[in-house]
Amino acid sequence: NQSTGTKNLLIKLPHNATPEIIHKLGALFNGCRNGNTKVFLHHNDTKLQTPFSIERTDELMEELKSIVLHGSVELA
Description:
Elements (H helix, E strand, L loop, with lengths): L6 E6 L6 H12 L3 E10 L2 E9 L3 H11 L3 E4 L1
Parallel strand pairs: 1-2
Antiparallel strand pairs: 1-4, 2-3
């Protein structure tokens, strides 16, 4: 189920996020199709825009939630 237009995907990392979580996210995004959803990471008080612009799917959203666990995944 695709939505049209540009969306922002905001991934709020848990306070205790490890480099492993960042690595898993990077690997996941590297495997995504290019699309119009820009990816941002938010950790503590820092918000970073990543170079990724991906195609969003329900499967991707579920996988992201399983990686960030105590964080959150939001569309803005």
